């Protein structure tokens, strides 16, 4: 049988699920023991004791049947009252049985009363005001007879004590278990926080701890983090080195071309310029999300500065909306490069760029929209891959790039624990690019 219907009702955190696993058996055990005790033991014992007390009350009731006055009746039963440890008196003409309020936790009293009414046909009322005293009122030919005796002769003393004791010690043991469980789950929480921070481009101090299995997972995470950092560093050094070494021959080519006549050097100069742009893109891609250190920034001021710089460069860019407040932890240089790439693409394929900022408790979203031709839905996955060039019709105005602009943006977003999402702009009709970064 499928258990998918149960998932919406299950807690999501590990601590809550562990608490449920710990508490649920305790509750079930208390219910089973409590019900078994009440139905199998306490009710049987109470029935036996109540039947015995009923026989004694019937004996007293029978002995006063031949008495003509109340004084004679009391005198005739006085020896038996002493033997049975009971007290008796007749109520006055206008006196009513004093029942009183029953204790709320006296859950065995209803069974006692039902047993007495079933076995004493002349019973008028029953009073069980405390755990030490019981009163029964009998109808006789001389009036209402009140018999007072020890309540413990009808049922076990304080029958609720077992349940109270079980609940008390269950709460104590559960509290101790919760404290121990929290200490056991803390290393897992620390490991999850370190992994989440690393996924968002931050390195937080972490040392393995806890049980053997948790320590093994922590050591594996540290090894994985070290390998990823080495690979990123090696990729950056390799691309930076290659790009840097190629700048020297390009500079010599530019110098040689400057000596040639303009009509002969123009085509070659164009090729050298394109190679220079390609090298610049390689350097940007090699630096990628690893550029700079993580800092806490005010995102609205950060975006306004980028927009102001774009306007000074002659681009028609504008920050049109800011929703939410707060700060975020990002690599400012890397995110700036990603946003500038999107603005540059918007200017290359369209005439204007509009930026929006949306902040909530879990994420930050930077949206850049343009009025260009956009990217078809079936090509958006390919568009974010390195060195991918789309249909030339998209670039009919400015000439093609090197295919690294969106790849750099996607790399920066992933390094911050987020993603780059492409869609159609509802406002301008062109491309809508969302950089989503976790907070």
Automatic annotation (TrEMBL):
Indicate the segments forming the Histidine kinase domain, all copies: 241-439
Gene3D superfamilies noted in UniProt: 1.10.287.130, Histidine kinase-like ATPase, C-terminal domain
Q: Which Pfam families match?
A: HATPase_c, HisKA
Q: Name the InterPro entries on file.
A: 2C_sensor_his_kinase, HAMP_dom, HATPase_C_sf, HATPase_dom, His_kinase_dom, HisK_dim/P_dom, HisK_dim/P_sf, Sig_transdc_His_kin-like_C
Query: Known catalysed reaction(s)?
Result: ATP + protein L-histidine = ADP + protein N-phospho-L-histidine
GO: which molecular function terms? Answer: kinase activity
Span-the-membrane segments of this chain are 14-38, 162-181
HAMP domain mapped to chain residues: 182-233
- Topology versus the membrane: Multi-pass membrane protein
Main localization is: membrane
Listed A to Z, the keywords are: ATP-binding, Cell inner membrane, Cell membrane, Kinase, Membrane, Nucleotide-binding, Phosphoprotein, Transferase, Transmembrane, Transmembrane helix, Two-component regulatory system
By its UniProt entry, which SMART domains does this protein fall under? Answer: HAMP, HATPase_c, HisKA
Give EC number(s), comma-separated: 2.7.13.3
Q: According to its UniProt record, where is this protein located? A: Cell inner membrane
* Ranges in a coiled coil: none
Q: What is this protein called?
A: histidine kinase
Q: What is the lineage of its organism?
A: Bacteria, Pseudomonadati, Pseudomonadota, Alphaproteobacteria, Rhodobacterales
């Amino acid at each position: 049988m499928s258990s998918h219907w149960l998932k919406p009702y299950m807690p999501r955190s590990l601590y809550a699920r562990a608490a449920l696993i710990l508490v649920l058996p305790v509750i079930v055990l208390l219910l089973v023991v409590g019900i078994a005790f009440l139905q199998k033991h306490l009710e049987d014992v109470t029935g036996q004791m109540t039947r015995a007390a009923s026989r004694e009350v019937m004996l007293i009731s029978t002995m006063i049947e031949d008495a003509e006055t109340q004084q004679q009746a009391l005198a005739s039963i006085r020896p038996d009252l002493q033997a049975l440890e009971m007290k008796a008196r007749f109520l006055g003409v206008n006196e009513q049985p004093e029942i009183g309020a029953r204790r709320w936790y006296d859950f065995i009293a209803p069974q006692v009363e039902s047993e007495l009414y079933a076995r004493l046909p002349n019973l008028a009322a029953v009073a069980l005001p405390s755990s030490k005293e019981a009163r029964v009122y009998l109808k006789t030919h001389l009036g209402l007879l009140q018999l007072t005796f020890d309540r413990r002769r009808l049922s076990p003393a304080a029958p609720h004590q077992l349940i109270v004791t079980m609940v008390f010690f269950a709460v104590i043991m559960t509290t101790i278990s919760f404290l121990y469980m929290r200490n056991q789950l803390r290393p897992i929480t620390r490991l999850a926080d370190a992994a989440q921070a690393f996924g968002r481009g931050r390195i937080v101090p972490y040392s393995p701890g806890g049980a053997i299995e948790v320590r093994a997972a922590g050591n594996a995470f540290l090894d994985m983090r070290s390998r990823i950092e080495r690979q990123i560093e090696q990729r950056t050094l390799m691309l930076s080195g290659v790009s840097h070494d190629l700048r020297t021959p390009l500079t010599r080519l530019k110098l040689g071309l400057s000596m040639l006549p303009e009509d002969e050097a123009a085509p070659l100069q164009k090729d050298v310029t394109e190679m220079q742009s390609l090298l610049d893109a390689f350097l940007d891609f090699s630096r990628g999300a690893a550029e700079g250190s993580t800092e806490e920034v005010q995102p609205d001021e950060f975006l306004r500065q980028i927009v102001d710089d774009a306007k000074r460069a002659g681009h028609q860019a504008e920050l049109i909306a800011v929703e939410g407040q707060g700060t975020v932890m990002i690599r400012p240089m890397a995110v700036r490069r990603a946003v500038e790439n999107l603005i540059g693409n918007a200017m290359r394929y369209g005439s204007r760029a509009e930026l929006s900022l949306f902040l909530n408790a879990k994420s930050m979203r930077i949206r850049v929209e343009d009025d260009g031709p956009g990217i078809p839905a079936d090509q958006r996955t390919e568009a974010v891959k390195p060195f991918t060039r789309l249909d030339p019709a998209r670039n009919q105005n400015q000439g093609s790039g090197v295919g690294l602009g969106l790849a750099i943006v996607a790399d920066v977003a992933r390094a911050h624990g987020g993603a780059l999402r492409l869609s159609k702009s509802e406002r301008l009709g062109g491309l809508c690019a969302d950089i989503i970064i976790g907070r």
